[in-house]
Amino acid sequence: MHSISFPTRFLPGTTDNFVSNEVIAKDLTVFDIWHYLVDTAKWELYYDNAANIKLTNGKNSELHYGEHFHFDTFGFPIDAQVMELISPTKDAPIAKIAWHGWNNDSAESAIDVYHAFLIEQLPANRVRLLTQESQIGNSAAKLAITKPNPMLNGHQAWLDGLVSAARKQL
Length: 170
Prior knowledge:
Structural class: alpha+beta
């Protein structure tokens, strides 16, 4: 199976917080899932932890490589930029998207994150969804010790929502 690559600054195990979530679902394809992940207009339909999503391109609601965007999540306003985007193809049924996100409001609430998704087709008509996020900052350190872990639970809800949306074809 494939993995997510992190910039050195966000190397898991060296930051203030890191979470990893994975789902393997049957009877879906990478293509079924991909559209719901890159089209930010769909996010609020299946994931209630993303709001006020605005892309700077002004052309459409789909994320593109280099795209700057803003959204609110986990109680933080986040500015972000897409750092990696690999769309799936028939010959290479694997997809990746990653963004660098930040909030510089104050020293206490500042957070700097690298969030990535990997979606790959598996044998026997299965698809694997992996999301990982590495975080730096006081807010990240607080999230890491919060029980239950809001990042772990929130990202699981995102993956579960993606699978549900793809099955329902919202």
